[in-house]
Write a structure and sequence with these properties.
The structure holds two protein chains of two kinds. Chain A is built from 19 helices and 17 strands. By secondary structure, chain A is α/β, with parallel strands linked by helices. By secondary structure, chain B is an alpha/beta fold. Chain B has a single domain, classed as Response regulator (Rossmann fold). The two termini of chain B are 19 Å apart.
């Protein structure tokens, strides 16, 4: 508003110019020389279009004024010439200013474009730098791990070769020399025996390390008494600590909750931490204890040892990392202790960390969930993402005799966003299902009761998927497995339940793949899997026909059999009532199109299967849509 | 007089096996359990052949080997390095330290004896 007012003011001041010119025109006044700078000044002040309009208007007005008032006739040509020149100058200035402004606009525009491009480039280069830094760091990390790994392997090989040398040497001596007296002979045999014992221990130690390192250890979850845990662990390291004259102290409140975990694994964590504390402490003492923190139990092991530098805090938990591990006169070790501890703690749903002042000592701590009835069967892992949409799905029926297990399972499923219903007996389960039609049944029936088969068959007829949750499953009891679509074992862990339930509730569908070629089978399975489909593999039609009525797949994909075999399989499949209406895809070389069209639903070029998901899966999906719309 | 041999290894079982074989082969055998002891005995007993384990408490086998080879007084002492580390790096370390032979665990006592005989016959030529 203010700017507009200013413009009007400037425009009207323009009026003054011709007026002044008119009156000064009577004599040869110097004022008229001021006109041009004034015009230029105003032109810059005003927007060029306004200037043009104003200039033009002023000239016209003035001309009219001059002629209407009837000035002396000798004045007319002079005034007219002045008006004309004024108009021309104004207009010309206007154009120049317009040109300048346009140029200014263009250059500022190109400057801003340049700015944008250069900002963009800078961002890109920053991103590249970040990526490069990350890669370099990852590379260094890998190199470190690699170096640590080979050092570990060298250590293992050294440790193993020593007893092996003894065993080999003494047995060779016993074989080579006949004149060995009985006592020596006995001594040598003893040595062989002892050394093979030592080797067995070493092997099982390393295998144990590697198993835990690979995350393959099975957890046996129970309620564990923290005091007992600390005491057992302390007993293990007591001889070492006594040798170094380090007192071991327990710091634990009297009334303390039980934790939920695998006792032997938790002991291993504490033993590893206590072992390190003893190893790296020369004088002072070592304290182990626990306290409650944020609904968890936090164990700690405090030492007065050499401490850990801040930059070492993260890496010490890495596999094979040993502080100055390659230097002589350093405590020996595998470099796996803390890595294993971290893995165990994380598997328990806890966290591990360290606080330390170099030269003063370190405190390692880790958290473990408190044992309650509710957590009895469930691993407290973070909620998987993307579960918000599960609510609209059909409810899940949880049928178990035990109310604790039922409530635990329902609570878990509900925390994942599913709706659930409960039932105590299979009979009640069937009644409930008739009314609410669950999308999935999870059932816990005693093996051999016959109830499960009843429920399973009923569910199959009703088209409901069912998961078995038995205590143990006997693989020989194929009826039981066949009647269910899947099963999980107690103790239930969250991951197992989440992945199994998700598979049944949200998957797009299943395919049955019949192929004699292992590679082809895996490739198809991977392709379909990454597109959200399940895939069951069979090597021939006999196997497939046995399973097809149970798995009820979306479609069947027939792999690369010789043509006559393909024909046999297809006719066998067509004879089977449960699958003769299923879409059948034939994976084949190009050029056999006609054969495929006649006998199968559609053919897939084998060439397509190599190009990634899009061509093959898209083709299947398109084809199925067409099939279903028929 | 029987040839003097020193075995320096912190694994008593290995020293015992080696000394048994070498004694049977007619050598006079001394045993050292660590690097320092080994060095002391080398200077005192002047063994013709020294078996050195690389990984030993106090002084490592490589260091002793270097010290022996650098000492003009101890010229003529043959050094055979014993190690459980079969890596190329170790082999190079041994050779650069001047070792005469290198044996990787697990070794056969028979081979050790053969090795010793070769060294001695080489020395006699």
């Amino acid at each position: 508003m203010n700017a507009k007012l200013k413009e009007i003011l400037y425009a009207s001041s323009l009026l003054l110019i011709p007026v002044a010119s008119f009156f000064s025109g009577q004599g040869e006044s110097p004022v008229r020389f001021l006109f041009f700078p004034l015009i230029v000044l105003l032109a810059f002040r005003l927007r060029s279009s306004t200037l043009l309009k104003a200039g033009f208007t002023c000239s016209m007005l003035l001309t009219l004024m001059v002629f209407s008032s009837g000035p002396p006739s000798h004045m007319i040509p002079k005034i007219a010439a002045e008006m004309l020149s004024f108009f021309l100058v104004t207009a010309a200035t206007g154009f120049v200013v317009q040109g300048i402004e346009a140029e200014k606009g263009r250059s500022s525009k190109s400057a801003s474009t340049f700015q944008v491009i250069s900002d963009d480039l800078k961002k890109k280069s920053d991103e590249l730098q970040t990526a490069l830094d990350a890669l370099t760091k990852a590379h260094q990390q890998l190199q470190l791990t690699n170096r640590a790994r080979s050092r570990f392997l060298a250590d293992v090989s050294h440790e193993l070769r020593t007893p092996l040398t003894s065993i080999r040497s003494y047995s060779e001596i016993l074989l080579d020399y006949d004149d060995i007296d009985d006592a020596t002979r006995k001594e040598f045999i003893h040595t062989i025996f002892d050394e093979s014992e030592r080797m067995t221990l070493l092997v099982s130690k390393y295998l144990g390390l590697l198993r835990v390192g690979a995350g393959k250890s099975e957890m046996n979850i129970t309620q564990v008494n923290p005091r007992l845990l600390i005491e057992i662990s302390m007993n293990v390291v007591t001889p070492l600590a006594e040798k170094k004259g380090l007192p071991l102290i327990i710091e634990l409140p009297a009334d303390f909750p039980q934790v939920r975990g695998d006792q032997s694994q938790l002991t291993q964590v504490l033993v590893n931490l206590l072992g390190n504390a003893v190893k790296f402490t020369a004088t002072g003492n070592i304290t182990a204890g626990a306290r409650q923190k944020d609904g968890m139990v936090e164990f700690f092991v405090k030492d007065t040892g050499e401490g850990i530098f801040p930059e070492e805090k993260e890496v010490i938990f890495d596999e094979f990392y040993r502080i100055s591990g390659s230097l002589p006169n350093r405590p020996s070790g595998s470099g796996l202790g803390l890595a294993i501890a971290r893995q165990i703690v994380e598997q328990h749903g806890g966290k591990i960390g360290v606080e330390s002042t170099p030269g003063k000592g370190s405190t390692f701590y880790f958290t473990i969930p408190i044992f309650t009835e509710e957590t009895a069967y469930i691993q407290p892992e973070p909620l998987p993402v993307g579960r918000e949409t599960a609510g609209h799905l059909d409810p899940i029926l949880v049928q178990t005799e035990s109310i604790v297990i039922r409530q635990t399972l329902r609570k878990l499923l509900e925390s994942m966003g599913y709706r659930t219903v409960g039932a105590d007996t299979p009979k009640r389960g069937m009644d409930v299902s008739t009314e609410i039609r669950p999308g999935l049944i999870i059932s816990d029936v005693m093996e051999g009761s016959g109830d499960f088969l009843k429920l399973g068959n009923w569910a199959r007829v009703a088209g409901i998927k069912i998961i078995l949750a038995p205590l143990y499953i006997d693989p020989a009891n194929s009826d039981l497995v066949l009647a269910a679509n899947g099963y999980f074992n107690k103790p239930f862990d969250r991951f197992q339940i989440v992945s199994t339930v998700e598979h049944f509730v949200t998957n797009n569908g299943r395919f049955s793949i019949i192929t004699p070629q292992h590679e082809e089978a895996r490739k198809l399975q991977t392709l379909l899997g990454s597109a959200g489909y399940g895939a069951d593999l069979y090597v021939d039609e006999a196997e497939a026909l046995k399973a097809l009525p149970v798995t009820s797949p979306h479609a069947i994909i027939l792999g690369s059999f010789p043509r006559s075999r393909s024909e046999d399989i297809i006719s066998a499949l067509k004879r089977e009532p449960s699958c003769n209406s299923l879409p059948l895809f034939l994976l084949m070389d190009e050029g056999c199109g006609r054969f495929a069209e006649v006998v199968t639903h559609d053919s897939l070029s084998r060439r397509n299967s190599g190009k990634g998901i899009t061509p093959l899966v898209k083709k299947i999906e398109k084809s199925l849509t067409w099939h279903n719309s028929k | 007089m029987a040839l003097q041999v020193l075995i320096a290894d912190d694994e008593p079982h290995i020293s015992r096996a080696l000394s048994f074989v070498l004694e049977k082969g007619g050598f006079s055998v001394h045993v050292a359990g660590n690097g320092e002891e080994a060095m002391r005995m080398i200077r005192k007993e002047r063994p013709r052949i020294v078996f050195l384990d690389i990984v030993m408490p106090k002084t490592s086998g490589i260091d002793i080997c270097r010290e022996v080879k650098d000492d003009p007084d101890l010229r003529g002492t043959c050094i055979i390095i014993l190690t459980a580390k079969g890596q190329e790096v170790d082999r190079r370390d041994c050779m650069s330290a001047g070792a005469d032979a290198y044996l990787t665990k697990p070794f056969s006592p028979r081979e050790v004896l053969e090795q010793v005989m070769t060294i001695i016959s080489r020395g006699e030529k």
